[in-house]
Amino acid sequence: MHRLVPPATVASLAALLVLACQVPATKDTPAGPSGSASAAPAVSAATPPTADPTAAALARLDGMDTRKPVPLIPMMAHHQKQNMRDHLVAVQEIVTALATDDFPAAEKAALRIASSDQMAQMCTHMGAGAPGFTDQALAFHKTADGVLAAARAKDKKVALQALGATLATCTACHEAWKQQVVDDATWERMTQQAPPEHGGHH
User: Fold this and answer.
1) Which domain holds residue 167?
2) Total domains present in the chain
3) Are residues 73 and 195 in contact, defined by beta-carbon separation less than 8 angstroms?
4) Domain presence at residue 187
5) In angstroms, rounded to a whole number, what is the distance separating the alpha carbons of residues 24 and 66?
6) Is residue 103 part of a domain?
7) DSSP character at residue 78
8) Residue 110 within any structural domain of the chain
9) Which of 182, 186, 185, 71 is nearest to 133 (CA)?
């Protein structure tokens, strides 16, 4: 015959089961006024978004680069890089042509980096927001005139010397300046000019 469990014992067991099913408050979940665990606070719509890590990294990199900025809208910055890459190709072609005494090819390549009225206009426009940049940019092209003249004279030694001087002005410019990409309104405010519809040299 089964023994009957006293009613008081049954009630005690039931109370223990109820307590065991409750989630206690932890250090990470502060207790509410009644002692029970309070719910995690809802994220407010006013909570600022997490900072973009890529933008923060770029800002740190820019802070390390102490060169003077040349403000340019994106289209101008892109076009400037295209032109500088072409300058490098022109230098490569000049060296290759001089190595084989191909003076017509050296002259053709030198024409791409030599000075001209159009080049001066473009350099002036690109440096509108950076006093001093235009002078340094024009010095590069004027020095390249020596390469062109020597190629036309078929004088390899002078052409190479002129090319060395041209590269010195090139590296000095890159050592002094860096691009600073800005929006149209900022560029207009900094230069007192309307943003160009097309890019420019440098």
Assistant:
1) 67-191
2) 1
3) yes
4) yes
5) 56
6) yes
7) H
8) yes
9) 71
pTM across the whole model: 0.71
With beta carbons less than 8 A apart as the criterion, state whether 110 and 147 touch. Answer: yes
pLDDT, one tens digit per residue, over 167-194 is 999 999 999 999 999 999 999 999 998 8
Domain assignment of residue 197, yes or no: no
Q: Could you give the angle at the alpha carbon of 168 between the alpha carbons of 91 and 78, nearest 5°? A: 60
DSSP code of residue 197: S
Q: How far apart are CA 113 and CA 116, in angstroms?
A: 9
Closest CA to 77 of 186, 166, 163: 186
> Is residue 5's pLDDT more than 90?
no
| Type of residue numbered 39 | A
Enclosing H/E stretch for 178? strand 177-181
The answer to whether 148 touches 105, Cβ cutoff 8 Å, is no
State the Cα–Cα distance between residues 83 and 49, nearest whole angstrom.
39
**Helices 74-99 and 156-176, packing angle to 10 deg:** 160
181 contacts 72 by C-beta, under 8 angstroms: yes
pLDDT range class, residue 48, cuts 50, 70, 90: low
Distances (CA, A) of 122 to 17, 117, 138, 143, 200: 84, 9, 10, 17, 5
**CATH for 122:** 1.20.120.10
What single-letter amino acid sits at 167? L
